[in-house]
Amino acid sequence: MFSNFTIMINCEKEDDRCMCLAIECPRVYNYSVTLKEECWMEECFISKRALNHSTLLQVTVGYIIILIVGLLGNILAISVLRRHPLMKTHSSVYIINLAIADLITLCVGLPFELIMNWSQYPWPFPDIFCNLKALIAEATMCHPFLFVKIKSIRQNVNIAICLVWIIAALFASPFGFYHRADYILKDWPGTDNKVPVYSSKMCMVAVIFDRSSLPMYRVIFHFSALMFFAIPISIILVLHILIAIRVRSSRKDINRSDSADEGKLRLTIILTSIVCALFVCHLPFQFQRLLFFYLENEEAVSSLNQYLFFISGFLFYLAPIINPILYNVVSSRFRKASKDMLVGIFNPSNLPQNSTMYRYSSANNVASNRVDLHQCVGVTRSNQFV
Hints:
disordered C terminus, mainly alpha
């Protein structure tokens, strides 16, 4: 502490304070690389914490709430869709995979985000974790649009889903490759000693470390924004609007309410709601990434990015908790199934005898798991989700 005070006094009147510290810190702390680097970086490098303490606490609490709600909501959604007889439809398979992707986003991305908010440097994990974090984040971000686009496939559903995951991983691989953990400061300030400042190691887009790769990044980021955001959302919204118009028109023509058409309409509403939620939640994230290529003023980029980073991050991680909420709001079937599931878990003795879960469970007990599901509950395997 006294050494720091002495250094500050010695460099206080210097015109280039950081250059003075670059000389004084190694002289005073020649016995410790860590203390030497902390001495200089505390005054002349970016703040170790991303925000001031009070704001950072609020962001942390918000992220923890999102994590808990997202985990509970998506685990419940998966359980309901897998176990409840009302939800045994082909569309449920796609929704389950969306929920799994949301869980991966929350479990992989959010903890890293919290750690980095509190300590931006040095990167504390193996370097490969930086690549995997970027790869998984990009894959789980772009695949929901692919899932929604193939939801009409009824045959070989599992193969279609596997292909979607593979395609998403392939297109996300450049982001995993071009993100890396590296040293911001390759030499000690004011020297060319080729010895990096070890505390400056950060997990970032590689263009920060190598500006010559900027043209390649411009292509990759714009391609991703178009192929996995702008174009899919536009196509999906137009198609779903056309489906809704066609279903409504057919119902008017025959002057009756067909259950299959009703199911298609409600399923379209659910999937369109998911796409709209994804659009709202991912738009700031895409905007922030592309903004880097159009603003040349580094101070303006840094100032604007600080706010956009947390807004886009908050909305990005909000998306996984919106989907289970949408299922409950739009789907009466899902609400009923969720209620049955929760009652069955916490108070099975109070499960109504007229509930589907009760009849399904009772029938299974009587028939030793061999009874036909259609005879137990009268559920038809249709495309109805609601």
